[in-house]
Amino acid sequence: MENESYEARKGTIVYKSRPPLDVRIVAYFLYGVGFLQVVFSVLLGAQVGKPVGIETRRVLLGTVVLSSALADAIYMLCLGTCHLFCAWGLMRRAGFSWWFALAFFIYYLIDEAFLFPKHHAVVLIGGAMGIALIAWLWFRRERYGVHLAASQTKK
Fold first, then answer.
1. pLDDT tens digit string along 17-43?
2. Is the dihedral of CA 59, 120, 35, 39 positive or negative?
3. Cβ neighbours of residue 130 closer than 8 Å, sequence gap 6 or more
4. How many independent structural domains does the chain possess?
5. Does residue 151 lie within any of the structural domains?
6. Helix (H, G, I), strand (E, B) or coil at 53
7. Is the pTM of this model over 0.85?
């Protein structure tokens, strides 16, 4: 008690427990991916990293065609922002972030098939990571307060 400050003795300082290791690993991974996507989108928007031959890509489940570097930059900025939002919410243990992350990763998994049709290795690696993240979210749903009707037991 000698090392406590006056605020700690009064109870105004609240120490939050750290998230579990698996939550931190996933969140830091998502922070890294989101940060890289935001940086690359800014560089692509500033035409610093302008590709030589821009080919058209289909996004949003194949409904929208991106044909310019600026459109690619805006789309990549949106994806990076979603990754950062997912990581932030998962670290804060917010229930809405579980639902948002699940919907986002399912969309991202399906969209990769349309985004990289000629790059099979990218689709396979990204798809495996997307499936792993969806499975992780499914097994950690109780931590975020998500109780599905099939998972509740009757007493």
1. 777 788 888 889 989 999 998 998 888
2. negative
3. 105, 106, 108, 109, 112
4. 1
5. no
6. coil
7. no
